[in-house]
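Q: Given only this backbone (159 positions), what sequence would you predict?
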């Protein structure tokens, strides 16, 4: 596939809004300590699987491996409900991510909210939801403009 356009060059201001969101998300791992970077990568991968975004799958699988994520868990992520490889907190985050990504199909019901809140504070849940919202935005941009898949190297998008 050939890239349709370079979205960073075409509209730097628009892309800067997502970069700023990523800076905030990065602060959640590095400064605020409200989110775990490995868990966030798993969420980004699962959302990208649902959306079919090859570019983001390549990027976030590489980032997850660099953080020490195992191949077994990465390969099983698409069927996380069928395995015992994920903690209860990870399972809650993945369920929340799927529900928010597929929100057009069903509302976020009270039971999902309650079960997710058992593992995340109010602030953590808002931050996690921002991770989900942001990766959904990146997925839509990458799917629309088709950047070349495979060239991402860990550390090339540090914030």
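A: Predicted residues:
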């Amino acid at each position: 596939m050939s890239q349709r356009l370079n979205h960073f060059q075409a509209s730097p201001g628009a892309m800067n809004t997502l970069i700023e969101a990523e800076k905030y998300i990065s602060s959640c791992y590095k400064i605020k300590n409200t989110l775990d970077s490995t868990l966030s990568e798993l969420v980004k991968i699962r959302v990208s699987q649902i959306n079919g975004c090859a570019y983001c799958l390549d990027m976030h699988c590489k980032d997850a491996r660099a953080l020490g994520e195992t191949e077994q868990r990465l390969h099983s992520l698409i069927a996380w409900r069928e395995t015992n490889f994920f903690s209860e907190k990870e399972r809650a985050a993945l369920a929340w991510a799927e529900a928010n990504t597929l929100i057009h199909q069903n509302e976020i019901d009270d039971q999902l909210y309650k079960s997710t809140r058992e593992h995340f504070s109010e602030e953590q849940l808002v931050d996690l939801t921002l991770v989900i919202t942001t990766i959904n935005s990146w997925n839509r941009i990458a799917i629309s403009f088709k950047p070349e898949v495979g060239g991402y190297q860990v550390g090339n998008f540090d914030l």
